[in-house]
Amino acid sequence: MRAISNVDCLTLWESGTGLHPLDQGLLALSAALPDTPPDTLPDWPLGRRNGALAQLRCSSFGSRLQGWTTCRRCGEKLEVEVDGRMLANEGADQMPPAYPVVVNGQSFRLPTSRDLAKAACESDVSRAAMRLAESCRLEGGESSTWSDEELAQIGQQLALADPLAETRLALRCPACEDEWEETLDMATFLWREIEARARRVLKEIHTLATAYGWAEADILSMSERRRALYLEMAQS
Prior knowledge:
Blueprint: H1 6-16, H2 21-32, H3 46-61, E1 64-70, E2 77-83, H4 84-93, E3 101-103, E4 106-108, H5 113-119, H6 125-136, H7 148-161, E5 167-172, E6 179-184, H8 186-212, H9 216-220, H10 224-235
Antiparallel strand pairs: 1-2, 3-4, 5-6
Helix pairs in contact: 1-8, 2-3, 2-8, 3-4, 3-8, 5-6, 6-7, 8-10
């Protein structure tokens, strides 16, 4: 896997703006894995996808994942920090089970990005869970109808088989001591950083092009250190 360059960020941001977060994450992975056929990435189990996104984030932006959230009870703003290397290492070591997940006599494979895209079309949570379970069911035949309890059991067993499919962060508010969990969406987190870097690079290009009349390609070909020094002189 190769790191995302400034040019990559600009290309990804330009082509991926407006896409669904699932597609944005896969687009970023395709740029980092040029030897992997892009049409195979949507069929990766979610744990494998998330581990690869964490590796990409660490190689391109560093291992410290920093963000902010708000306490659901008192509204206190909390800073959240995660070591991305832990997620990347878990993803690298994790192998999908060679056997299907069996729940109440029915077999299921691990969910993929393609399955999530189908479930995302449903506005109702229960119907989305039903759509996801049906998409992962291995047996053919007519669609099944599961109770909420059965859907919860299916989801629990799939999560146990692919623990990196969803990353839950345990949070505690220092102000009111409320405790809760939030989901870390690696695709969305990474895309926001790609967008932020693209905007920063475009601003640098604008500043240097205005000051020196250089072309965008010439500015992008400079090293980070040289471009930073020119920016410092242009803004002094």
